[in-house]
Amino acid sequence: MQKRLHYSSLEINRRAEELIQHSANRYRITVQIANRAKQRRGLEASEDLDDLPLKPVIRAIIEMSDEVAQPELLADS
Question: Which NCBIfam families does the UniProt entry name for this protein?
């Protein structure tokens, strides 16, 4: 059984705002978050949804906010 990770809604909001502030285009960063979440959901489709520690969108926000220090990772591929 996986350990559940808990982030407060305030922490998620802070990270999302941080992403938006560091992005030149609010729409583009929103689409990038959605695309990463969609990819993550596809990778985890075979797993039981009750065992997932975080929803894909929240995980995408957390991962991308951690990558803000490396802006080249946020660039379009």
Answer: PRK00392.2-5
